[in-house]
Amino acid sequence: xxxxxxxxxxxxxxxxxxxxxxxxxxxxxxxxxxxxxxxxxxxxxxxxxxxxxxxxxxxxxxxxxxxxxxxxxxxxxxxxxxxxxxxxxxxxxxxxxxxxxxxxxxxxxxxxxxxxxxxxxxxxxxxxxxxxxxxxxxxxxxxxxxxxxxxxxxxxxxxxxxxxxxxxxxxxxxxxxxxxxxxxxxxxxxxxxxxxxxxxxxxxxxxxxxxxxxxxxxxxxxxxxxxxxxxxxxxxxxxxxxxxxxxxxxxxxxxxxxxxxxxxxxxxxxxxxxxxxxxxxxxxxxxxxxxxxxxxxxxxxxxxxxxxxxxxxxxxxxxxxxxxxxxxxxxxxxxxxxxxxxxxxxxxxxxxxxxxxxxxxxxx
Length: 364
Fold this sequence. Notes:
It is a single chain. The protein is of the alpha+beta class. The chain is built from twelve helices and eight strands. Strand 3 and strand 4 (225-229) form a beta hairpin. Helix 1 (2-35) packs antiparallel against helix 3 (49-68), helix 3 (49-68) packs antiparallel against helix 4 and helix 5 crosses helix 9.
């Protein structure tokens, strides 16, 4: 009877204590979150309740397993498994706590600063810092797990002796990966490109959606995702429309007939922009920038507060201006000239240039 009651008390007590402590801790966090609504820290810490309970349960079972006197032949293996679970759960809990602290700091910074460029820069840095922290904690946890095996501890001396050679070989083999990792850190702290920036890469216009230590994802206007190594942004030129101020100037070109009413087009441009909510009112203008034998090139200049609004302003101006010209001034639209050319003075149309007035051939 004692052999049955002892394991039940040990395992059941560990589970019950884990549930009770976890419930009490979660209750305290909820009360703290309701009391301090100005910070999301306590609510974010609740995300770590699962690894927290795993740590408690694994620690209690690891400390009281010997008292259960159960499966004596497999005591070493079960103890080793509980230790591995404890290390893994502790690493998971550390990552969750670090994420809660970092996200709280970012949200506080975002509330205090109204500059979207600075907020995007801090967001990029925070996301990359969290990835680095997760990678470091994961590596330490794996190393701690390996060191729990006696064979690994015995091989430690030989591994350290060959670490120099292995480091050189690994550095050569992972040269591209390492360069991308350093490029990711350079992007994060060099403020070259940030999450949410509007960029043009390889002729594609889009928004930076994700930045990691090795790759960057750009979401294009048609919902495609372009994934490229971060080293691209440190080795090749690219357009960042959100660098500095997000305000932008856009251009719309029209090809019209030489008789087009330029002054009336200027007035119509102002009327269109006054009714366009995306125009920020900073500047507008319309000028003739080039001519060809058949048409004139007219450039309309408009402004907006960011890249999305400048696109809206441009398409609105282009659509409404062409519609107005077709309705009010159809003669101003480009057309193919099929009329006969006007002959030079003193020349009769249809007369052969090589003939003399009396019909004889002209001689040199």
